[in-house]
Amino acid sequence: MAHQRIKLALIDLSGTLHVDDQPTEGAVEALKRLRQHGVQVKFVTNTTKESVGSLFERLRKIGFDLQRNEIYGSLGAAAEYVKKNNLNPYYLLTNDARTDMPDTDPERPLDSVVVGLAPDRFCYEHLNEAFRVLHQKGAKQKVQLVAVHEGRYYKAKDGIALGPGCFVKGLEYSTGVPAVCIGKPNEYFFRSALPDGISVEECVMIGDDPNDDCLGAMRIGMKGYLVETGKYQPEMYSEENRPAVSDIFATFSDVVQHIISCSDQ
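^ that's the sequence the OP posted. Answer follows.
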């Protein structure tokens, strides 16, 4: 049976291509090989600790060849959501991530809370302020809780680290306001990352999160390839309960080799 030629690879960043300031094994050269084989790439990320500009500069510094406009992040998608809905949010974001978001208007009342990965702001003072915004009564418009993403954890250089998801769920529990999730695994996020002329059958998602990356993409018809260099911990699974993804590979480089081999058949 002939394999469907892959025209576009959606590639997660943290845990897939790099962990903090270190590329994963063979990732820099593998990305070059994938491009040379004629596969378009787009970097889709739920990273919210830093702005797209900072992320781009960091990736270039550690050896990756990419253009800034190839990065499609949940932070940018959240900024568009805020603008489209004319929100005036209280932000639980890092100062760097805030530079990608619309400014808060001091002349208008706060009507929403936007939550990303912001370790320094996940303290009682800031979470309580977010609670008060969401809990306010008599607002002229319905308050909104916007989750840039709801990741449970991620891979850092010193091990697995807590993501923003538990803080989003805590605010939901305390206020009764359901969150609008912007990033992966939201179907809209994946579909909006596809350029014109490329179908989901011609696209593959490569990431380190079984649910947010792989299964999220598979729900709309893409293949979802999982790598073991990030948050996925194979030792936590048995052969019987392994994630039902399209395939699992040790590294991003191994995925690239698989894509090239299949297209040559």
